[in-house]
Amino acid sequence: MRPADLALLRTPGVPAVSPDGRIAVVAVERPDPGSDGYRAQLWAVPTDGSAPARPLTSGARDCAPAFSPDGRWLAHLSARPGEPAQLHLLPTAGGAPRSLTDLPLGAGVPVWSPDSRRLAFTARLPGPGAGTPRLLTRLPLRPDEGPPRRVFVVALPGDPDDDAVPLPAPREVTDGGGDDADVAWSPDGGTLAFVSARHARAGRDLVRDVYLVPAAGGEPRRVTRGRGECRLPAFGPDGRTLYATARPDLGPAGLDLGTGGPTLCRVPVAGGALEPLLAEPRADETPTTVLAGGAALLGVARRGAVELLRVPLDGGPAETLVEGPFTVRGVAAAGGVVVATVAHDRSAGELVALTPGRRRLLTGFGRALGATGRLHRAAGLETPPGGRVTVPGGPGPHPVLLVLPGGGWCLREDVQVLVSAGYAVVQGDPDDVPAATALLDAAVTGRPLDAGRVGVLATGEAAGTALRLLAGPGRVAAAVVERPPAGSLPDDLDAVRTPLLVVAAEDDRDWPPGEGPRLFAALQRRGVPSELLLLPGDRPGDRAARLEHLLRWWDRWLPAGQGAEQAPAGASPATGTGPEGSRAP
């Protein structure tokens, strides 16, 4: 893969399935070189594989599709260039979409009521203007997080097909007393569940509770009773139980994330403590908890992959629906059909339909990129679990780049570009220097790799492991550290003499933007060969520039030589996206 190939990248989101199970709809994002931005449109495909996917909308940024329970409507978000996303309604029988909202800061993901006559969503309302006194009753998680989200409900007009019928205005259901998110309807349509931080320590801990509020508005009632972090509530079929993705206990201070991630839990609607139903953390990106056929459908992290599980609500054993070297990004179910967005090391994602005894690959969004012949297949490592290595063509021995964290079994543009340039890339998630060393040793054993020519590329929290690795015995020739967070610099930073490229994003909201420049300044003061790359954001041009600088840096300190731009063994336009009969799920 080359930096210019980013223009061919197609990334599908979380699917929606029609109530009869016949049609799946998904938003597909692609870079737009003309605007140096992104476009996204909705695509529809029959779940029986009888026809190829076809574009359904042509907006600048269309996403978050949701079928109404009666199948007549498809709600979605759409944004014009430079404007926030608004809620739109598209008739499934054909016709133009109609905007349902015109909120100054845009609308959130739409959620249908059981009667198909109302939509719930969250949205922010503008706060006081600049220079106006503001009273804060809690500390914001980020200074720039904006005003709190509120729950809204908007009713469909009497005749949604008639553009002349005035649209009802969205109605506020909550008052902004907390940052409200993740709305769900009760089976009778009379109550909304959502998550919020409305307790006394809100803003000083990570606790988020599940609340209930009448759909017509009223005083919210807290359901969860503990110190948990809740997300994505969903009512069970009988309306007496709520299921959520949660960390059940964050400790006395509400700040202890522990070693595990959020998992599937349940709690009585009447109130109580969260009860975990699964030991493994949830790892998919679906913006709800999907319940279908008496079970929950969710992705869990296993051995570097994200596998799809069916977890019976009655406590029976979980069933694995998609396993192996894949990353399940999202899932939806209706009409006896489960549709998942599944990525692997040579595709950013494809839709797969699952019915009893059969699975079908529905899309080929990665076909154009695969047709270049420049995508390379990774091989799993038995030790440590979840590790993998991607080796370029040619006899070798190839220089080795250790990428931390590994990022799972999915297409990574930087990995593919570096392998095409002649580097063997090792990916994994070691939590300390001995584990990182073991990962490298497992990768180079029995392969045409040069164990004496090693580089490290680390992002985020993994920066600490990388810097400690550099401070040890001189095995690493050069390194790249991206977005190092506060507290990641080891005590023995003075021992680091390895050439180091520091990458930071000027508008990064996840990590303090000053940490990268501070690391660069410390290296410069000691005369360590170092550079600082400041990226304005995450536009296609910024991503391409990052790849070009990575190639330049490694060519300077760890030149590849043989193996550059070799086609991966066995690759062809026909197999580049993993169709039926290959490694596709």
From TrEMBL:
UniProtKB keywords: Aminopeptidase, Hydrolase, Protease
Which first-to-last residue range defines the signal peptide? Answer: none
**One GO MF term, please?**
aminopeptidase activity
Cite the Pfam families for this sequence.
PD40
Region Disordered: which residues?
Answer: 562-585
Tell whether Hydrolase is among the UniProt keywords.
Answer: yes
The organism's place on the tree of life at top rank: Bacteria
Similarity section: Belongs to the TolB family.
Provide the protein name: Dipeptidyl aminopeptidase/acylaminoacyl peptidase
Originating organism: Geodermatophilus dictyosporus
